[in-house]
Amino acid sequence: MAGRPLSPIPVSTPPALRALVQRLRDVKEASGKTFAMLAKDSRISENVVRRALAGKGVPLLENVTAIARACGRKEDDLARAWYAAKAEEILPGARQLGPLMVTSRAEFVEAMIFLRIEGGYPPLRQLEKKAGSAADGRKRLPHSTLHLVLQGQIPPTEKLFTAFMDALPVPAAHRRNWLEAHRRLFADAPARRAWGQPPPVVRDEPAALTSCEAADRALARLEHDAEIKRKTGQLKEPDDYELLGLGYLNSSASGYQWPDEAELAAWEAEAAAQPPSQTDVGLREKLRAIIDRSEPA
User: Fold this and answer.
1) Residue 51 CA, distance from chain mean position
2) Residue 118: inside a domain, yes or no?
3) How far apart are CA 237 and CA 227, in angstroms?
4) Structure confidence by residue, pLDDT tens digits, 226-257
5) Who contacts 148 (Cβ-Cβ below 8 Å, separation ≥6)?
C-alpha cells in the first residue's frame, strides 16, 4: 500500500468516535484503495482523508459521505455512526428526545441541537443564509440570536424556531409536534422587544436630584462624619486661645520658662521707647473720627 500507514486510534478517543473511525478504516481497507486513489475518487485532499481516519476529532459529515461513496458503500450507514459521534462530542451523556417527550426548556434546547446534528451540524451563518430574509428585509434567523438560544441564554421565539426548522430542514410530518412542544414550554416566556421599539420606561426610578438637593445631601454627610469624629475623639473644637493664636498659653508642653518681673519690665520699657508706627497713628485717627460722628451733639 502506497503512502505512510495510519497510527493506531488514540486511547483517549471517545467510544462513538472510535467506532466511526474504525468503520471508515474498514471501508477503506475493503475497497483496496490507497489514500491517493481515495482522495481522487472522493474529490477531497489526501490530508483531509487522513485526518478523517486519524481519530483525533469528528470529521465533517460531507467528508464521511464522500469517503463512503468513493469506497462503494452506503452513505446512510456511516452517516448514522457520524450522528452518534457528533452527539457524543456536543452533548455528552444527553439523550435525544422527540417533541412529545420534551418536558423542560433545557431539554427543548438540547432537542434543537440534536436537530442541527441530524442536519449535518451546519455553521450558524450557513443556517442564517438558508433561512433567508423576511418581508421587511430582516434576517429570519440571525446567527448571533441563534447562538444565544442554543447556549440557553434566551428563549427561542416561535418565528425563530420556525425559521430554524426551515433552514435544516425538519421533515414536515414532525413540524406540527415541534411547534406544539414549543408553545407548551415557552407560552409564558417574556417577549423580546421588537426591532426599532424603544426600551420600556421604568416607573419606579427615583427622581433626579437637583443641584441644591445634591449639595444639601453632601453637607449632611459631612456634618454626620464630623459628628462621628467628635464622639470618637478624632475631632477637637478649637478653644479661644487657639482662635487668637495664643494656643501656647493653654499648651501642656513641659519645659516652657515664663519670664520674670525684670524681663517683663524691660519689654515694657522697650515698647514705650519706640515711636508709634504710621499704621497705628492712622488707625487711631480713623477710630476717633468714627466715635465723634456717632456721639450725639
Assistant:
1) 36
2) yes
3) 11
4) 777 777 766 666 666 565 665 555 555 555 56
5) 154
| Share of residues in the chain with pLDDT > 90 (%) | 46
Which three cell numbers, joined as nine digits, stand for 178?
Answer: 415541534
pLDDT band at 215 (very low <50, low <70, confident <90, very high): confident
Last residue of a domain, which of 90, 118, 147? Answer: 90
CA 94/CA 261 separation, integer angstroms: 104
Distance from C-alpha of 169 to C-alpha of 172, rounded to nearest angstrom: 9
Q: Which helix (H) or strand (E) holds 223?
A: helix 211-231
Name the burial class of residue 20, with classes exposed (0-12), middle (13-18) and buried (19+) by CB atoms within 10 angstroms of its CB: buried
Residue closest to 28 by CA, chosen among 77, 83, 70: 70
Cα–chain center distance at 62: 35
pTM > 0.85: yes or no:
no
Residue 235 contacts residue 225 (beta carbons within 8 Å): no
State the total domains in the chain: 2
Give the model's pLDDT for residue 265: 75
Taking Cα atoms as reference points, which of 102, 194, 119, 107 lies closest to residue 164? 119
Range of the domain at 124: 105-186
